[in-house]
Design brief:
Blueprint: H1 17-20, E1 28-29, H2 41-53, H3 63-77, E2 86-89, H4 93-103, E3 109-114, H5 118-126, E4 131-139, E5 142-145, H6 147-151, E6 158-164, H7 176-188, E7 192-196, H8 218-222, E8 224-228, E9 242-245, H9 249-259, H10 268-280, H11 282-303, E10 310-311, E11 319-323, H12 332-338, E12 341-342, E13 344-345, E14 354-358, H13 363-378
Parallel strand pairs: 1-12, 3-4, 3-6, 6-7, 7-8
Antiparallel strand pairs: 2-9, 4-5, 8-9, 10-11, 11-14, 13-14
Family: Belongs to the class-II pyridoxal-phosphate-dependent aminotransferase family. MalY/PatB cystathionine beta-lyase subfamily.
EC number: 4.4.1.13
Keywords: Aminotransferase, Lyase, Pyridoxal phosphate, Transferase
């Protein structure tokens, strides 16, 4: 069955966090990173069959899910993953927090890109760990990690390097040479690496490839935790199924011990959805990527014609990191919210001069939001 990504799905007055935030207001929500697209038919069919069974007791990850994930890693990345390396989690954010708590002591610090997806910063703060902000700099038209500037900030007590590939925000797909530089950095400073790769399937720039950090070498494998999930890819984030790939037995045992009694097992319906998505969702994913490329191109074109706004090319994800530093307003997020467009504030990621726009939505709705943004800027008072 062909998917129609131009189909508008009414999400108001449902249990949608994204849409509930602005319930009763004329504000288009383009903030939190879930899409407005109907999930793959194979996922819906599998869930309906499981619900029809009628019994919802405790579950466990089926060998089938492990098998399809391992096959996927081999097919896409030529990365040989073993079943015992897999730790299933009810979300990726808990994987970030567990990595910090399991793999560092209170005296040890973490290193994370900046700006970055907010839970990276929160995971260190909640665990009372120091965090070095590794700056993301603009190189050409790509946001990349500045390891040289990071090195100058180190105290020698850092133990965990937290990476994000593709990067959120900014959408950068790191090239092999850049990943090897990150590995060299980790080796020189004796760091464990936690790599958030949740957006690895959402590659918009054709001809580019995702390379898992752990697949670089045996050393990279043994010093790393890789976090992946079908949640963003197939719009099943609300079901909560993520995977930590931890080849090193010592790191894996510490990670598992840290979760005991705190992080619950994955919901049985989430297992069903994840298995169906990985098994039978590829054509749906290909169609979604085509649609997202069209939306990405529309956002690039429109944003870069609005005075005071700049957007660099988005290589991956469905998230546009918009530079509003030249806009003559004190709070870009509040300004556009007042204009009827709900974006993510850049301050959440570490830079209040930016806003993040989620373009995984019906194109007509996206067009309307972009028009509201352009009109709001056009109506700003001019100075003599």
């Amino acid at each position: 069955m062909a998917s129609n990504f131009d189909l508008y799905v009414e999400r108001r007055h449902t249990d949608s966090d994204k849409w509930h935030k602005y319930e009763g207001k004329e504000i288009i929500p383009l903030w939190v990173a879930d899409s407005d697209f109907i999930s793959p038919p194979a996922v819906i069919d599998a869930l309906q069959k499981r619900v029809a069974h009628g019994v919802f007791g405790y579950g466990y990850p089926s060998p089938e899910l492990s098998d399809v994930f391992i096959q996927r890693m081999q097919q896409l990345y030529q990365w040989e993953v073993k079943p015992e390396w897999l730790v299933f989690l009810p979300g990726l954010v808990c994987g970030l927090n567990l990595s910090v708590r399991a793999l560092t002591t209170p005296e040890q610090g973490t290193i994370a890109p900046h700006p970055i997806y907010p839970p990276f910063m929160k995971s260190a703060r909640l665990a009372n760990r120091n965090q070095v902000s590794a700056p993301i700099k603009l190189q050409g038209k790509r946001w990349v990690l500045d390891l040289e500037a990071t090195e100058q900030q180190l105290s020698g007590n850092e133990k965990l390097l937290m990476l994000c590939n593709p990067h959120n925000p900014g959408g950068t797909i790191y090239r092999r040479s850049e990943l090897l530089d990150q590995l060299d950095f980790a080796q020189r400073h004796n760091l464990i690496v936690c790599s958030d790769e949740i957006h690895c399937d959402l590659l918009l720039e054709e001809g580019l490839e995702h390379i898992p950090f752990a697949s670089l070498s045996e050393d990279a494998s043994q010093r790393s935790i890789t976090l992946m999930a079908p949640s963003k890819t197939f719009n099943i984030a609300g079901l909560g199924a993520s995977i930590a790939v931890i080849p090193n037995a010592n790191l894996r045992n510490r990670f598992i011990e840290a979760r005991m009694g705190i992080v619950p097992n994955v919901d049985i319906l989430a297992y069903v959805a994840a298995t169906a998505a990985y098994k039978d969702g590829e054509q749906w994913l290909a169609d979604q990527l085509d649609y997202l490329r069209g939306n990405r191109d529309l956002v690039m074109e429109k944003i870069n014609t609005i005075p005071g706004l700049k957007l660099m090319p988005v290589e991956a994800t469905y998230l546009a990191w918009i530079d509003a530093s030249e806009l003559p307003v004190s709070n870009p997020h509040a300004f556009f919210e007042e204009a009827g467009v709900g974006l993510s504030p850049g301050s959440d990621f570490g830079n209040p001069s930016f806003v993040r726009l989620n373009f995984a939505c019906h194109r007509e709705l996206l067009t309307q939001a972009l028009e509201r943004m352009a009109n709001a800027v056009a109506n700003l008072p001019t100075t003599a």
